Amino acid sequence: MSIYGKAREASERFAERRKREDEAPRLHDEVPGLRTLRLEVEEQRASSTVAETKHVRIVVVDHAPALFVLPCGDGDCRDGGHDLTGEILARLRHGATDFTVEDRCYGSVRDVPCGRIVRVRIKATVASAR
Ligand SMILES: [Zn+2]
Fold it and tell me: Number of structural domains, the chain?
């Protein structure tokens, strides 16, 4: 693919993501009482048992969309990623404040399934019940 094609594809993907985020319900509507949310993201290749990368994401609850979609950490992966939205929202709605979700990438790298694993530890604080 030409450089121009790749750039256009990336910008289309970005626009699509923006659209999804704009259309998604807000996190504070989906999980009333949620105060803070912190995600510790760990990634690991399918063939490895050691976590490769780890980063922390702080979610600004007041403005954030109720959408937890992480891109695949492998730059060669096509159509991959992790959609953890349903699972994370369900756990938060049930009042969980410290839990881990795991997902396997559904994309492919050079025609082989990617299978990269992402593990997210979620720590939330909620307003105390009245
Ligand atoms: Zn992938």
Answer: 1
Local confidence pLDDT in tens for the 130 residues of the chain: 566 777 888 888 888 888 888 888 999 999 999 999 999 999 988 777 777 788 999 999 988 999 999 999 888 999 999 999 999 999 999 999 999 999 999 999 999 999 999 999 999 999 876 5
Report H helices in the chain. Answer: 3-23, 27-30, 85-93
Query: What distance in angstroms lies between residue 13's CA and the mean position of ligand 1's atoms?
Result: 15
- The rounded Å distance from CA 128 to ligand 1 centre is 39
118 C-alpha vs ligand 1 centroid, how far in Å? Answer: 10
Question: Which residues form the domain of 87?
Answer: 3-126
Q: Are 69 and 84 in contact (CB under 8 A)?
A: yes
Residues near ion ligand 1 (CB < 5 Å) are 72, 74, 77, 80, 105, 107, 114, 116
Is residue 127 within 8 A of residue 33, CB to CB? The reply is: yes
* pTM: predicted TM-score of the whole model, two decimal places: 0.82
